Amino acid sequence: MVPSTHFIRVYSTNGPKEQKPVIELNHKKNIKSLVMLNEINVASAGDDNEIAVWDLRKQQLLFRLLGHIDKILAMEVLKDGTLVSGGDHSDRQLIFWLLKSRTISFRIKNAYQGSIVCIKQISEILLATVSDVTLAKIKSSEVKIWSLITGK
How many CB atoms sit inside 10 A of residue 104's CB? Predict the structure, then answer.
């Protein structure tokens, strides 16, 4: 039997090797990306085109973010708390989410060819005139860098 990948399972590190999860949350479809937003909240995204934000203490869904038209494959929380998500080859957009207001700050459409596999903030290699960038690694081994200020 193949285990389902639409669950978020949290295990205790203080228990035996073979144990049941302490928390189990059910995302609608398969999860492709999971990020910790803070000590108690986690965001999951995947095949259902949605980002689900969960409260681990209460073990409940807080809200969903809608805006992608296909699978979401990667997410990253920026230093300022903005959540960035990238989609599958048919979605081809980066969306920058303001989590407090649950709204889109801005989006970059047709940002890439192929599918994003990883998004990371890399402030160590910035030029002095640019305040920050987001790096997206594409499946075709191509790497693109966008300015968070201009979107280019």
Answer: 14
Kindly report, residue by residue over 35-47, the tens digit of the pLDDT. 999 988 999 998 9
| pTM flag (> 0.85) | no
In sequence order, what DSSP letters do the residues of 111-149 get, joined into one string? --SS-EEEEEE-GGG--TT---EEEEEETTS-EEEEETT
Which of 78, 77, 31 minimizes the C-alpha distance to 51? 31
**Position with higher pLDDT, 148 vs 33:** 33
- CB-based contacts of 12, cutoff 8 Å, min separation 6: 19, 22
Q: Which two tokens stand for residue 20?
A: 């049941």
Residue 32 sits at φ, ψ, to 5 deg, of -110, -25
Q: Which residue has the tokens 């479809």?
A: 29
